[in-house]
Automatic annotation (TrEMBL):
GO molecular function per UniProt: cytochrome-b5 reductase activity, acting on NADH; heme binding; metal ion binding
Coiled coil spans: none
Cofactor dependency: FAD
Name used for this protein in its record: Cytochrome b5 reductase 4
Family the UniProt entry places it in: Belongs to the flavoprotein pyridine nucleotide cytochrome reductase family.
Native source organism of the sequence: Ursus maritimus
Top-level enzyme category: oxidoreductase
Pfam family, any one: Cyt-b5
E.C. code: 1.6.2.2
One GO CC term on file: endoplasmic reticulum
Keyword Oxidoreductase found: yes
Superkingdom of source: Eukaryota
Keyword Iron attributed: yes
Length: 473
């Protein structure tokens, strides 16, 4: 794990102390200023060479990228392709090449630790360093927390012969974030397999792996903010849990172990209460195909995707009439007043992030007389994943104000529609106002990476915070 060393500012060995006129700079070519670099990063050009993918980088792989036109550098556990930045670097190409193919954290801290490299190089991010945890002979509790490796005896005690491979975890940090990475060594893990709970200083993450639960349970060493995010890289079975620090200080350790920490136990022994948020929907989009109104409005409709390997949805799928589930009070911060005098409504949905759009469509098309245009851009993996496609197309035929566009990330060769992921090119074409100064609302919902990327792109396209509303999928 890479921690930021504690040192004075500027660092004793910094060129800002050594050189009387500040650190030395080299003349930059025309068109290579900081503003030129910012414009390049916002252009949508692939600066990593990986077409938007993030990968796990081994030490062996990092060492291969040591040329000016193929230069990777690691800073605090994150790997960047700095080749596109070479000509924009005020300190010159030679300074960057000193860290080519290696961990440049110490060198970076010596020269300009205060620079916000995460923002400067975010479009050059290749991925994270692959951690190679090692279990020392005198394996203490502190090492278990930092490396996240199960002692061998604990693995054999808890695993049946046909059980899953031993999972492990690790963690790293930046100035403002702590990321816990769980390596499940399974390829059928999805968000529905992960339960994360944080109360006071207690942090608990449970991952369902076949018939077992892998548990991380810690008393965190520092305070964190309430909101956290979870990302699953399904093809490698990796889970990333991102915590936001309350104070931008360097953590010496992640925390101390609590009950069942770093253990893999049979699922039936965990006794976990499962809580998942879902958005109530209308029973139909089109009024003329609605079923008769049910007596006393006693029914709530949910649209839920069943994940066969998931923790929660298979249980829902096997419920029978007369079975019970507990339902909480409604949560959320969307206000009907946001529709007041609205003229253009744009909806961006990915997968089951479509669910909050159902009631929005119903309400807006029925109750907003000022509305000129309603457009839905619906992102899915494959054509069969498109929810309520026939109803959406019937609604577009019935109400000329409404239009729907589908975008597929893994279509068949027969697909003639749009392809890819959320991007500046797709959004700039889609988000066209009916009038130059028409009042606009953009609603977005989907997996956390989709929503966060979408909001960043919308801000880049000069939409204000008041014109954007995000839902939690």
């Amino acid at each position: 794990m890479l921690n930021v060393p504690s040192q004075s500012f500027p660092a004793p060995s910094s060129q800002q102390r050594v050189a009387s006129g500040g650190r030395s700079k080299v003349p930059l070519k025309q068109g290579r200023s900081l503003m030129d670099w910012i414009r390049l990063t916002k252009s949508g050009k692939d600066l990593t060479g990986l077409k938007g993918r993030l990968i796990e980088v081994t030490e062996e792989e990092l060492k291969k990228h040591t040329k000016k036109d193929d230069c990777w550098i690691c800073i605090r556990g994150l790997v960047y392709n700095v080749s596109p930045y070479m000509e924009y670097h005020p300190g010159g190409e030679d300074e960057l090449m000193k860290a080519a193919g290696s961990d440049g954290t110490d060198l970076f801290d010596q020269v300009h630790r205060w620079v916000n490299y995460e923002s400067m190089l975010k479009e050059c991010l290749v991925g994270r360093m692959a951690i190679k945890p090692a279990v020392p002979k005198d394996y203490g509790e502190e090492k278990k927390v930092l490396n996240g490796m199960l002692p061998k005896s604990q693995v054999t005690d808890t695993l049946a012969k046909e059980g899953p491979s031993s999972p492990s975890y690790d963690w790293f940090q930046t100035d403002s974030l702590v990321t816990i990475v769980i390596y499940t060594k399974q390829k059928d893990i999805n968000l529905d397999s992960v339960i994360v709970d944080h109360q006071d200083d207690s942090f608990r993450a449970e991952t369902i792996i076949k018939d077992y639960s892998y548990i991380i349970h810690l008393g965190l060493s520092h305070e964190i903010q309430e909101d956290l995010s979870v990302r699953v890289v399904e093809n490698v079975g990796k889970i990333e849990i991102v915590l936001k620090k309350k104070e931008n200080t360097s953590w010496k350790r992640l925390g101390h172990p609590l009950e069942n920490h770093n253990s893999l136990i049979p699922k039936k022994d965990t006794g976990t209460e499962i809580v998942k948020p879902y958005t109530p929907v209308s029973d139909f989009l089109l009024s003329e195909v609605k079923e008769p109104v049910l007596v006393n409005n006693k029914y709530i409709y949910f649209l839920i995707k069943i994940y066969p390997a998931g923790l929660f949805t298979p249980e829902l799928d096997h419920l029978h009439i007369g079975d019970f589930v507990s339902v909480s009070n409604p949560e959320g911060n969307f206000k009907i007043s946001q529709f007041q005098e609205l003229e253009d409504l744009f909806l961006l949905a990915a997968g089951t992030g479509f669910t909050p759009m159902v009631k929005i469509l119903n309400y807006a098309l029925t109750n907003i007389p000022s509305l000129r245009k309603v457009k839905l851009m619906f992102f899915n993996k494959a054509e069969d994943d498109i929810i309520w496609r026939s109803q959406l197309e019937k609604l577009a035929f019935k109400d000329k104000r409404f239009d729907v566009e589908y975008v597929l990330s893994a279509p068949t060769s027969e697909w003639n529609g749009k392809r890819g992921h959320i991007s500046p090119a797709l959004l700039s074409e889609f988000l066209k106002r009916s009038l130059d100064k028409s009042k606009v609302l953009i609603c977005i919902c989907g997996p956390t990476p989709f929503t966060e990327q979408g909001i960043r792109l919308l801000h880049d396209l000069n939409f204000s915070k008041d014109e954007i509303h995000s839902f939690t999928a």
